[in-house]
Amino acid sequence: MTAPVDGSYGSDMSLAALTSILMHGPVSRTELTARLGGSQPTMTRAVKPLLDRGLVLETEDQLEGPGRPSRPLVGSPGAQRFVGVKVTGDEVFAVSTDLLAQEIAHTTMALRSHDPVDVAATIAEAVHALASAEELECVGVALGGSAVDGRTVTRAPFLDWRDVPLADMLEPLVAVPVVVDNDITALTAGEHWFGVARGERDFAVVTIGAGVGLGLVRDDRVVRTHDMGLGTAGHVPLDPTGPRCFLGHRGCSTAMLTIPSIEAQASVALHRDLTFDEIVALAREGEPVALDILTAAGTSLGRLIAMVANIAMVDVIVISGDGLAVRDIAEEALLTQLAAERDPEATPLDLRIDPEGFTRWARGAATVAIQWSLPRLLAAPAAR
């Protein structure tokens, strides 16, 4: 397994064409030629194996432009199957998809322990529940940690893992190739190829939930570093008067935006244990303490989004995660703070909400599996 997980496949024109069609289709051969270089005859030869193998289709709709109208190319769902797995501290959520990361089925299974052998066994059980090895191409696994080589989890704090060869452990159990990625970068890859940011060359993903995550795409590439999984976005200072996080940072993004912190604040203030959903319900009813806490969170989210946009210099921001209700309850506070933190002449931000939850995270892992599988799919015999 040496293919990169970011969709960059070197000079092979057929691979480059397939990547571009999956990311940006429908697209004409003329547009592909302009995007990738070369000549029209070269592009025709490059696209032929994609059509022969059923990886792309010519649509019935015709694109008007210079010369004769052309039938655009789109990715084909195909017969290939992939499984994406999102691992949390308590469970694995798995989804089977086609080549376009469209969900076919999903399942959730509880973890027996954090022992790598147990986690690998639970992942394999989930995979077998969704697809047989005969129909499966690849499994993608996403978790809160670093696995920049796509094989070994060098660090996963919530599982207390270091240097766990998860792909090597899983492949004998599932009998297909396995690729492992950080959950935020996998989610970002999914948004880039098949999600709400499809077609965007530059954007950021901000997630709020159990933690705070940040993903980035620059020039059509997902940014990956060895520091993924360290929670570098989790302790950005946002409110000097806010509560402290578990590390003692006052008003950082973890203290202001995560579900555990919001639950702790409300439970202390209202003298009873409250879940995030209960706090949201109280805020919707106008309960002042719950409303104040979520409004402060919305203000902090606006500041964080502004920081990301200002520093990364992106205009499209995808917001996702289990804590999206913060945005719903405190949208006005979010937008007010966002405007205050941005230069009035700066390009207006395009905020895109993805409420899909764990399904989107697992489909992100499936997207990484799809990306890793493209060279192998092109090497397979053409369909008859």
Automatic annotation (TrEMBL):
Database matches in Gene3D superfamilies: 3.30.420.40, Winged helix-like DNA-binding domain superfamily/Winged helix DNA-binding domain (1.10.10.10)
Superkingdom of origin organism: Bacteria
Stretch forming the signal peptide: none
Domain HTH marR-type: 15-56
InterPro entries membership: ATPase_NBD, HTH_MarR-typ, ROK, WH-like_DNA-bd_sf, WH_DNA-bd_sf
One Pfam family hit: ROK
Family statement drawn from the similarity comment of this UniProt entry: Belongs to the ROK (NagC/XylR) family.
Full protein name: ROK family transcriptional regulator
Lineage: Bacteria, Bacillati, Actinomycetota, Actinomycetes, Micrococcales
